[in-house]
Design brief:
Layout: E1 2-6, H1 19-31, E2 35-42, E3 59-64, H2 67-75, E4 82-86, H3 93-103, E5 109-114, H4 117-126, H5 131-135, E6 141-144, H6 148-157, E7 163-165, E8 188-191, H7 199-212, E9 218-221, E10 234-238, H8 245-250, E11 254-257, H9 261-266, H10 272-279, E12 284-287, E13 303-305, H11 308-317, H12 320-337, H13 340-363
Parallel strand pairs: 1-2, 1-4, 2-3, 4-5, 5-6, 6-7, 8-9, 8-11, 9-10, 11-12, 12-13
Helix pairs in contact: 1-13, 2-3, 7-11, 10-12
């Protein structure tokens, strides 16, 4: 099938944590015979911070972040068998949502792909005029970045015909163990952009342990942290390109995952970084959230912390041998159960089922 995918960016992870998620899923769909065209705006300096060149498995259309640029790419939805509007494009989101639905052919499959479902559901609950309320009757499917049963129930409550979580996963070709890099040497590293709904949790789970464990070294990567006053045992790297993620994960004694507020509250929402770190055999410490055991076994494949004191205590007790064993166990589990090959099979099956259903309805 010809898939038109309207998202934030396939080429750049700059202020765009969904990039590796899109890459892993869409490459797998292309491998399964689908033709992918990804539409992304020239916005937020992403094109000057590309991680990859346009891949051979997708056509990438970079359009001006203007109304005329958006209208031009909306029109191209008319030639697609599957039209996907992702959340969080960042510019003209509402115009894109309504536009690609209107432009798509009557028998096309229309999908909303939500990469921050807990936050979207909170918006739908308080805003009866939210554009997604108007779009919902025309959508055949909602895919979500995660969220588990609470997100499925939430979307069904708002009228979604069907909602299926497609979780983050590992692309073992991209994320895998590498030799340590001295640039990333430390006891605990965290990678994530500075965002309003994450900052307080980063303070609790990263900066509090840094202040408690003054003899340990800490490393923080991601955009926005450079302007923050930090403890003397913390280094800020700024943006870390995806080509550097393996070394970032493989070098420290341990790597920290911190969920955003909405995802921590609803659970079942492992970030991309969880799978990238496990793929590199990193020893992962994560903040506590419901559903972690569906992905990694606490204490054996991941260490779970309830607060900053827990992080400091876990770090104090952690030896290189234990860290190595946890990291290797995590990698085995993720390779066995949580790869993009598996996720792509889920999406491919759902698309083919929807296409068959639409053909049956057309013949009825």
């Amino acid at each position: 099938m010809n898939i038109a995918f309207y998202g934030s960016s396939l080429l750049s992870s700059y202020w765009n944590g969904a990039a590796t998620y899109y890459r892993g899923l869409l490459e797998e769909l292309a491998r399964r015979g689908h033709a992918i065209t990804f539409y992304e705006p020239d916005a937020f300096e992403r094109q000057s911070h590309r991680d990859i060149d346009p891949p051979d498995w997708a056509d990438v259309v970079v359009y001006p972040a203007t109304e005329s640029g958006v209208r031009r790419v909306i029109a191209e939805a008319a030639s697609a068998d599957v039209v996907v509007k992702a959340s969080g494009v960042g510019v003209f989101d509402d115009v894109l949502l309504a536009g690609v639905i209107d432009a798509s052919r009557p028998h096309a499959i229309r999908i909303f792909w939500d990469v921050d479902a807990p936050a979207t559901l909170a918006e739908l609950a308080v805003d009866p005029r939210h554009p997604l309320h108007q779009a919902m009757p025309a959508l055949d499917m909602v895919f979500t970045y995660g969220g588990g049963p609470p997100v499925v129930a939430g979307y069904e409550r708002f009228g979604a015909a069907r909602c299926v979580p497609i979780y983050n996963a590992l692309d073992p070709k991209t994320h895998h163990p590498v030799e340590p890099d001295p640039r990333f040497a430390c006891d605990l590293a965290f990678l994530g952009n500075r965002l309003p709904d994450r900052e307080a949790r980063v303070g609790e789970f990263f900066f509090v342990p840094a202040m408690l464990a003054t003899e340990k070294s800490f490393l923080i990567g991601g955009n926005g942290w450079e302007t923050l006053t930090m403890p003397s045992n913390v280094r800020a790297l700024g943006h870390v390109y995806t080509r550097e993620h393996n070394a970032f994960n493989a070098t420290p004694l341990a790597v920290l995952n911190i969920a955003r507020d909405s995802m921590a509250n609803i659970g079942f929402s492992p970030a991309t970084r969880v799978f990238e770190a496990a793929g590199a055999s990193a020893c992962l410490i994560t903040d506590a959230w419901e559903g972690i055991e569906l992905f990694l076994h606490p204490d054996k494949e991941v260490l779970v912390a309830r607060d900053g004191q827990d992080v400091a205590d876990l770090l104090e007790a952690l030896t290189p041998e234990t860290a190595r064993a946890i990291g290797e166990a995590a990698r085995r589990r993720i390779l066995a159960e949580h790869t993009y090959a598996r996720r792509g099979a889920e999406v491919d099956g759902a698309l083919r089922e929807l296409a068959a259903l639409k053909r049956e309805r057309a013949l009825a």
